[in-house]
Design brief:
Shape: globular
Radius of gyration: 20 Å
Bound molecules: adenosine monophosphate, magnesium ion
Structural class: alpha+beta
Helix content: 25-40%
Oligomer: single chain
Order of helices and strands: EHEEHHEHHHEEHEEEEEEEEHHEEEE
Strand content: 25-35%
Largest sheet: 9 strands, mixed
Length: about 350
């Protein structure tokens, strides 16, 4: 897996974040793999080492609860048995996922998992599915058929259905570790969970945190740099994260639930900034499926979700919503989307 947002080497903070950037003044930095991706957590303050370890433990706990492939996980059991009673974490995720499904008119659909499997994005070998097989499998995809009894916490899936929190779980994990940073009373922290960036508290020099948005077409380059404040999550979705090629065509891992094919909305990168990391993650996947016009319409008109975004289309046009216009800097030209 790739890191979609790289941390930029600027002045004091960068020096603290990567040893390659200069003298390291980090209190604690750990790197590990979880949730199918590479993660780093850097924490500052007296309790940094304990907080970093607790954050890692929490992510690993969530991973073993939410994994679709780990036979001991809650999600695995739900998919196998067709029903189950959810823990607090899975309950929060099903709630957020179903709300998003409704708000995005089905663009975000956790029941897309059987189609992911068919393409080999889940576990198997990559292959372009047979049309008929795809059509039959697509008939299983409909989050509206997930029966969730909020009172008892029981979820029941229709025959053949299966769910996957892959489009939202890292965002949830980011929110969970923010709570840990608070609990441990650290002064500042920044985590990259496979490209989902979460910042907490203050940098050692009290300036804003800088994150660079990776260029989807050249991962050694970046589209620009975003300065963000305490508590903001920055999440990017792009087809370049996981894909395969067959007969010269590239197929990626974000599926359009309407077609069963990799979303072909014209967007190649979507970055969401929000104080709610779970929503930021779900929205990045959703807006990627919806495409620029629908995403802009959603951003303007949907009042339930408070977020800003950076979009790049296949012609390399770059769009930035007005809430980020003062905090995004880039060598590329970009159009500012206003609320009007
Ligand atoms: P992200 O990197 O956050 O955009 O999430 C991509 C992951 O979300 C995929 O690897 C799948 O696990 C899952 N996924 C793919 N398509 C969808 C979709 N339309 N709705 C919800 N989850 C999806
Ligand atoms: Mg996502």
């Amino acid at each position: 897996m790739f890191r979609k947002i790289i941390l930029i080497c600027t002045a004091v903070w960068a020096a603290a974040s990567f040893s390659a950037c200069g003298v390291s003044s980090a209190s604690e930095e750990i790197a590990f793999e979880a949730m199918d991706t590479y993660m780093t957590i850097t924490v500052y303050g007296d309790n940094a080492a304990n907080a970093a370890q607790a954050a890692k433990d929490e992510i690993e706990r969530l991973d073993s609860l939410l994994s679709t492939e780990d036979e001991g996980s809650e999600v695995y059991a739900l998919n196998e048995n067709g029903s189950g009673t959810l823990s607090e974490d899975s309950t929060a995720l099903i709630d957020a996922s179903l709300k998003l499904w409704e708000a995005t008119d089905g663009a975000f659909d956790i029941s897309v998992y059987p189609v992911m499997e068919l393409w080999g994005f889940a576990g198997g070998e990559y292959k372009v599915p047979d049309e008929k097989e795809l059509e039959d499998t697509l008939a299983l995809v409909d989050a509206g058929k997930i029966v969730w009894d909020e009172e008892s916490g029981t979820v029941t899936l229709a025959e053949g259905m299966a769910i996957d929190f892959g489009g939202i779980a890292k965002g949830y994990a980011g929110d969970a570790i923010t709570d840990i940073f608070e609990e441990y009373g650290v002064t500042g922290a920044i985590a990259s969970l496979g490209g989902n960036i979460v910042v907490y508290g203050e940098k050692t020099d009290s300036t804003l945190w800088n994150v660079a948005i990776e260029d989807p077409e050249d991962m050694s380059e970046y589209l620009g740099v975003l300065s963000i404040e305490d508590g903001v999550s920055v999440v990017t979705s792009g087809g370049y994260e996981r894909y395969f090629e067959e007969d010269g065509v590239t197929y990626h891992h974000i599926i359009d639930p309407d077609t069963g094919y990799p979303a072909d909305s014209g967007l190649i990168s979507v970055t969401i900034a929000s104080e709610n990391g779970t929503e930021a993650d779900g929205l990045s996947t959703s807006m990627f499926v919806m495409g620029k016009d629908e995403a802009v319409e959603f951003w303007k008109s949907n009042e339930a979700y408070d977020f800003e975004m950076i979009l790049m289309d296949s012609e390399r046009n770059l769009y930035v919503t007005e809430g980020l216009s003062g905090s995004f800097s880039s060598d590329l030209d970009f159009e500012i989307i206003t609320g009007e």
